[in-house]
Amino acid sequence: MEINIDEIERIIGYKFANKKLIDTVFNTPAYTNQRQAHGENIESSDRLEFLGDGVLKFVLTYKLFAYGDKSAGEMTEERQYYERHETHAAAIDELGIAKYLRLVDKQKVSDKMKCDLFEAIVAAIYLDRRGGIRAADKWVDRVLKLSGKRVKI
After folding, report:
1. Looking at domain 5-149, what is its CATH homologous superfamily?
2. pTM
3. Separation between Cα atoms, residue 92 and residue 117, nearest integer Å
4. Which of 52, 87, 97, 139 is positioned for an S-S bond with 119, CB 3.0–4.6 A?
5. How distant, in Å, are the alpha carbons of 19, 45, 58 from that of 55?
6. Domain residue ranges in the chain
7. Is 146 left (phi over 0), alpha (psi -120 to 50) or beta?
């Protein structure tokens, strides 16, 4: 299934040098398995989601550490809010890009899938040659509305 990469880039506010990264972001595991069963060589977003989780944790941890003098417990509690599936799902809903997820049959988009999409986007931006940690940080900052936590990485 073809998706409109230009439109997605406009919506998320980041233009990819490597279009394959953003295209892969929308390949759900079920869709990938189905396409691979039909002989297609297609990559799932799983690996991107895994990396994105780590990049996001680093970005949030650094911001919370560098911004103020909260205790480790307070920083952990605040970071957990920004790591919640519901927080990521709400951000994806606000962007309106879950509709581009490649699904199978009558599969419905869940909050978990939206969270995975969010994390995969973070990783794709991080891996893109125009991106890196600063671009991923900037995107997370904007999308999660961390305006009070603006600390340069």
Report:
1. Ribonuclease III domain (1.10.1520.10)
2. 0.91
3. 8
4. 52
5. 20, 15, 5
6. 5-149
7. alpha
Q: Which amino acid is at 3?
A: I
Q: Which residues, 6+ apart, have CB-to-CB distance to 147 below 8 Å?
A: 141
Distance, in Å, from the CA atom of 53 to the CA atom of 9, rounded to the nearest integer, reads 21
Which residues, 6+ apart, have CB-to-CB distance to 104 below 8 Å?
28, 30, 31, 34
- Straight-line distance from the first to the last Cα atom of the chain, in angstroms, rounded to the nearest whole number: 37
Q: How confident is the model at residue 147 (pLDDT cuts 50, 70, 90)?
A: low
Which residues have a Cβ under 8 Å from the Cβ of 35 and sit 6 or more positions away?
42
Sign of the dihedral through C-alpha 92, 98, 102, 107: positive
Give per-residue pLDDT as tens, 55-65.
Answer: 999 999 998 88
Token pair for 149: 């936590």
Helices (H), 13-131: 19-25, 29-37, 46-66, 72-83, 85-95, 111-127
Model pLDDT for residues 71-120, shown as the tens digit of each residue: 999 999 889 988 888 999 999 999 999 999 999 988 999 999 999 999 99
